[in-house]
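Workshop exercise sheet. Pairs work together: one partner reads the sequence aloud, the other fills in the structure field after running the prediction. Swap roles for the next sheet.
Pair: D.N. / O.F.
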Amino acid sequence: MTTWSTSDIPDMSGRTAIVTGANSGIGRGAARALAAKGAHVVLAVRDTRKGEAAAAAISGDTEVRRLDLASLASVREFAAGWDGELHLLINNAGVMVPPFSRTADGFELQFGTNHLGHFALTNLLLPHLTGRVVTVSSTGHRFGEIDFDDLNWNTRPYKAWRAYGQSKLANLLFTAELQRRLTEAGSPVLATAAHPGYAATNLQFQSGRRLLDVVSRIGNRLVAQDEDGGALPTLYAATAAVPGNSFAGPGGFMEQRGAPKLVGRTDAATDAAVARRLWDVSEELTGVRFPLAGFERSFAA
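Structure field:
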């Protein structure tokens, strides 16, 4: 049984990490742990006021920069302002089962934020990356399906949980295809993924439905682990000796809590053909391409 904890994180002195959505929840927990180990941690947040408050409560070397993953213009501005080496990118920010809404670019909010925003950010920052990309998915990927005919819910009735599952499945397919491309390009960068299990964060209270929010509060109180516990799988995927395309999650009670370990994923999350198609569609939607030399695009069916 794994007993991995933050004490197993190696010295991070001299390394720079970006954590999206680090003003609260498991992003804040990850930022706090990395800063405690000596990393320079950039809190990439939509609300810089909240980001500054979070940074002020973290002991270590931190910096706050504005990033709205629901706006490709904001993603491009953030990436264009990056001019140094980057050792670790943690794609953590996300939304969960909100009422139907769209990003600034017209994408369904969950798909646009959870997947497309991080897809664009990662590719724009890849020329600076030397270490790892960790993308936070969810056990919700298990009920996800990539609907290429209507990725952004333009014609079908909106189902918040199904849209969430699609975005979290997309996170795992993105990780798999990113690792394939990095390997083919001869890059030492690793792409990994993680899910937090059931962690008590404010992510559960964006549904706009009072009953669901009340149930979430009860669950948070009785079952969930705190944000530091929820951050452990992310930190494990970011710093432990794991291979590319690894997926980390809690090791106890149905993968909902406990020390992190490598966990399984659905067959849909390992479909290489779907991963490649999703990548191509994501490039078209965002206008952002894989930037590394040495990669040859594959058109295999």
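Discussion prompt: The domain at 11-285 is CATH 3.40.50.720 (Rossmann fold). What would you look at next?
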